[in-house]
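Checklist before submission:
- one chain only
- standard amino acids only
- sequence pasted in full

Submission:
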Amino acid sequence: MKFNRVFLIVLDSVGIGGAADAKNFGDDNPNTLKSISASKNFNVPNLLRLGLFNIDGINFYRREKNPLGAFGRVIEASAGKDTTIGHWEIAGIISSRPLPTYPEGFPPEIIAALEKSFGRKILCNKPYSGTKVIHDYGREHEATGNLIVYTSADSVLQIAAHEKIVPIEELYKFCRTAREIMQGVHGVGRIIARPFIGKYPNYERTPRRHDFSLKPPVETILDALNKKNLATIGVGKIQDIFAAQGINRSLGINEDNSDGMNKTLKLADENFRGLCFVNLVDFDMKFGHRRNVDGYAQAMTTFDAELGEFLNKMRHDDLLMITADHGCDPAAQGTDHTRENVPLIVYGKKIRAGVNLGTLKTFADIAATLAEIFSVEFKTSGKSFLEAMI
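Returned file contents:
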């Protein structure tokens, strides 16, 4: 069995139903896919025929009689429901402790250290909506030059600044400084630059957001592939999530999911051996957190059409994996991620159609399978499901 290329696409936040421990994470029976599938904007014929709705536990949509792919439900074994921990687990790391969060804001000693390093005072220091925080603090920021620092339910420290007050490279420098400070017990998953433009009350966030992630604590499957001179191509925020560790080529997404899929479609025309790892963040960032059911459903419909184009480009020795990193049910209360199981769809001309992989116990099974596909040594608690599909 030989695959030259694997395309691993993460539909950021597309969960398929509450995990057994969802209530421990403050979630009451969430189901992202069920919520969006009820929308009039939802139409995903390609995902349907690959077997998305044949996955165990999905009983709210019609099933495909003869699915083309292998499919399964995957449980998150790590103690978290955020992007960083989810992607780390996909890449083989199971995190036994959650990354730190700050529902009351960052402690005084952290704020003091940040202000001393920045040479500027800090505004806000609370969990806040990213669009509301610039509305509420933007004028004071413009008047004083003080930086807007805020967090969310996730393990993040975010710095918002108007591009006319703080040039983008200076904002990135502040974020790198914050990344150096936020280590150890305060090692948040991501420091996020949140630049904005405009005049009050019509401020707008720009696409020059940048994430400065905590480095993975141990090697991932990306490192193992990279050591064997195999391609490890990140599309979207993959490079940010892994702090560039193990990535030998990165293509950022400048606009939206479609930009990411267009880049992936172009990569399908290239010759390489290895992994193309794609994150499509719009589902989470633009629709899940903003609790926009119809917008989320439309984004899935758009992705499905682009997926059809990708399937037509696949070569005989290609393998496609589609999964998610957590949930973000747009019909749930609040704005936080939701603790959910995630889908796994696998398709390629060299695997058997219609294989039900059942329920996998960890996202890390994906990393173990990649290690077997490319014959690389890699230690993980995950188990390969390759044999079940061939």
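Reviewer check: The radius of gyration is 21 Å.
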